[in-house]
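Slide 14.
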Amino acid sequence: MGGKDFTQKIMNVFGLDVNQAEAMKQAPGDKTDEILSACQATLSSLVSEIRLSFDYFTSENSVEAIRLYLTGDSSRLPKIEDFLMKELGIPVERWNPVDVLDFSDKVSRESFSENIHQLPIALGLSLCSDD
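Slide 15: predicted structure.
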């Protein structure tokens, strides 16, 4: 469940190719409400998956999830934060660690910020072990 599912819905509803749908997803202009409507079933499935994950986490750790951080390309979908906050009943925000990172002169803070939604992939891979 993720960005590809949203892109596929947008492709189907608006008759677009994958590149056009991806561009519309990230910069919908005046079509935000239409996109959210087209993705309603996918968003509902996402909410169900998140709830299952939260339930599992709570049962394993005796701690409830109190905040959700969004990452990935679909985190840039307009109004997704508000939708998830309403459905899950907890604060939801886009994850942006830029303010707490130090950058060398060779790295542009602005360029890094534009691609921050892809950082969790690298972070997740760095946490994998060969055990």
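Speaker note: Helices lie at 3-14, 18-26, 32-38, 40-61, 80-88, 109-114, 119-127.
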